Amino acid sequence: MLDIEGLTRHYGTETAVDGLSTRLARGELTVLIGRSGAGKTTLLRCLNGLEQPDTGTINVDDAPLAATDAALVFQAGALVDGKSAVENVLDGALSREPAWRELIGWHSPDEKRVAIERLHDVGLAGYADRPVEALSGGQQQRVGIARALQQQPDVLLADEPVASLDPETGRSVLAVLARAVSEHDLFGLVSLHQPELADTVAGHYLGMADGRLVLDRPAAEVDSDDIEGVYANG
Ligand SMILES: Nc1ncnc2c1ncn2[C@@H]1O[C@H](COP(=O)(O)OP(=O)(O)OP(=O)(O)O)[C@@H](O)[C@H]1O
């Protein structure tokens, strides 16, 4: 299990995350919802080490989570234009390769093979050499997921990854995320402003209001009133 215990993060007098405790299960996608400013992004950034919590612990199977074990998929892909899909995926391995290799654009054959596999995982087999700016928004998000998987994370995080996509494309990208979490047996946490797009792939829901958890339940036990209740809070 991934255990978050008493997590608190302040910004000046603002308490973005306020004593939050929960557990995530491996292999299932947890959907994080809440109004703007509820603290979702701060929680995700604490999980991948971009923010240090003021207090609290994050443990995987009783050992502290290392920042390098968590990979984040960003809202709008955050890909490097001018590079191909596979080159962007290979960027996910940078932390494991010497900097000189990136400088001269050399990657080990093993890393390349894995990168092609990751593109296959996200339904982009055959797109490896395509420049990312020539891909659709949904395809770019899939490359972002493949790049995160290339980091070989234990925790896959995504911060509003479908915010800029139409609903049908958004659903398909969330399905790719859920499948990756299940197939690689990862902890998966995705923040969303349109929770209905995840109703067929969510395993668990967390709802935040004013930095606190107001919903923490398996998806099978969550109905639309529960979801609306989260947005009524705060
Ligand atoms: N770098 C920062 N400096 C100061 N305050 C911040 C910073 N980041 C977040 N906050 C504040 O912390 C609170 C939680 O913000 P956060 O971005 O985590 O919310 P959110 O639920 O992700 O919102 P949204 O859905 O709009 O992305 C907000 O009140 C926000 O203004």
From TrEMBL:
InterPro entries: AAA+_ATPase, ABC_transporter-like_ATP-bd, ABC_transporter-like_CS, MetN_ABC_transporter-like, P-loop_NTPase. The keyword Transport applies. This is Phosphonate ABC transporter ATP-binding protein. PANTHER family: AMINO ACID IMPORT ATP-BINDING PROTEIN, PHOSPHONATES IMPORT ATP-BINDING PROTEIN PHNC. One of its GO terms (molecular function) is ATP hydrolysis activity. SMART domains: AAA. SUPFAM superfamilies: P-loop containing nucleoside triphosphate hydrolases. It comes from the Archaea. PROSITE patterns: ABC_TRANSPORTER_1, ABC_TRANSPORTER_2. Pfam families: ABC_tran. Residues 2-232 form the ABC transporter domain. Keywords: ATP-binding, Cell membrane, Membrane, Nucleotide-binding, Translocase, Transport.
